Amino acid sequence: xxxxxxxxxxxxxxxxxxxxxxxxxxxxxxxxxxxxxxxxxxxxxxxxxxxxxxxxxxxxxxxxxxxxxxxxxxxxxxxxxxxxxxxxxxxxxxxxxxxxxxxxxxxxxxxxxxxxxxxxxxxxxxxxxxxxxxxxxxxxxxxxxxxxxxxxxxxxxxxxxxxxxxxxxxxxxxxxxxxxxxxxxxxxxxxxxxxxxxxxxxxxxxxxxxxxxxxxxxx
Length: 219
Hints:
With 219 residues, the protein is of the alpha+beta class. The protein has a domain at 4-152: Nucleoside Triphosphate Pyrophosphohydrolase. The chain is built from 6 helices and 12 strands. The protein has helices spanning 4-7, 13-18, 81-94, 148-151, 181-194, 210-216; strands spanning 35-46, 49-57, 68-69, 72-74, 101-106, 110-112, 117-126, 140-147, 157-161, 167-174, 177-179, 205-207. The strands form 2 sheets. Strands 1, 2, 3, 4, 5, 6, 7 and 8 form an 8-stranded mixed beta sheet that branches. A 4-stranded mixed beta sheet has the order 11-10-9-12. The termini are far apart.
């Protein structure tokens, strides 16, 4: 087994300690009958400093079309649990070689009521980064290594609102993407767990763009 203490950088120490015990809000507490899924929160030491891998789903999908997300998907019968599923999905969606990833921890399950999935976030350290590219053009439009410094920049953070006036949670405007919904909510908790979050104006509220709403309404 890889000695994570020797391979993972010190800036991940706090995250590794805090993440497995993050509290789960009531609206994210899983229902036992929900389908099991997993996502990979992949940390790397990129050309612009510490970063995390995000994908953007293809606009042609029936569910969550056009939305930025962590690599991931449903746990298949042949997968050996959420870790195997998260690594497999990252390979299929973004070209991440599983052999170059050290698993740091798994986080508490979260429930996505819209899709009826119980999602296990799996955190990994990208010990040996591989070339990344959309693996399924019909499913993934883009993959990007997003620096943590950009994610915590107060200028890139906001709360998004449905045109009806309902606040929908935190969002991040990075790399020509608007990260919102489940991914943004999880990402916000990841930044807190790692001790990286900077003060930002939670009262900066912006409406979701019409094109984003149109895509999101598909499923």
